[in-house]
Design a protein that fits this description.
By secondary structure, the chain is an alpha/beta fold. The protein has one domain: Rossmann fold (3-Layer(aba) Sandwich). Helix content is about 35%, strand content about 20%. It has six helices and seven strands. The chain has a seven-stranded mixed sheet, with helices on both faces. Helix 1 packs parallel to helix 6. It is globular. Keywords: Purine biosynthesis, Transferase.
Length: about 190
């Protein structure tokens, strides 16, 4: 049943585990959103197959197929419009988006990042948290702005950094929290967005 549900597009570059967590949430009758489509900038991203298996529309728009970043973003925007997208969720989408792309979606485009922002923007967050001696680590859902991982934080989840943690063990605990946090944060955003 999709009547009354807000239309969400998910942008991925890889396996799409957060996309799947969102799809699972959207399958619940009382969840206020449905996934209108999943788009990747990587043609063979495993998340595209995962979405297709769920009956979700997919699109692959590799950056290399376009002469410029601007043309690539314009193609992504056209696809989002074609899906009648209301909200955009970045879920492991490994490209910085321009302010020009973000502008029409401002306040309705969010990202999940594996750190307690503003700490550890960018890549290799689990290694960096361990090397910094952080007592806790986690994940953040934030509004997307033109700066990397700089938008206002919507919600966070925390995990302790344990003695003997590797980047993999710490990352696995953070990922489990991401899968819970992202659907909750999207629900909250939809509730406050006309």
């Amino acid at each position: 049943m999709t009547a009354g549900k807000r239309r969400v597009a998910v942008l991925i570059s890889g396996r799409g585990s957060n996309m799947e967590a969102l799809a699972d949430a959207c399958a619940a009758p009382d969840y206020p959103a449905m996934i209108a489509g999943v788009l990747s900038d990587v043609e063979d991203a495993p998340g595209l197959q995962a979405a297709a298996r769920r009956g979700i529309a997919t699109a692959a728009l590799p950056r290399g197929d376009f002469a410029s970043k601007r043309e690539h973003e314009a193609a992504i925007h056209r696809q989002l419009v074609a899906w009648r997208t209301e909200f955009v969720c970045l879920a492991g989408f490994m490209r910085l988006l321009s302010g020009e792309f973000i502008a029409p979606w401002q306040g309705r485009i969010i990202n999940i990042h594996p750190s307690l922002l503003p700490r550890h923007r960018g890549l290799d967050t689990h290694r960096r948290a361990r090397e910094a001696g952080d007592a806790e680590h986690g994940c953040s859902v934030h509004h997307v702005t033109a700066g990397m991982d700089e938008g206002p934080v919507i919600a966070q989840a925390r995990v302790p950094v344990l003695a003997g943690d590797t980047s993999d063990t710490l990352g696995a605990r953070v990922l489990a929290e991401e899968h819970q946090l992202y659907p909750e944060a999207l629900r909250a955003l939809i509730a406050e967005t006309p």
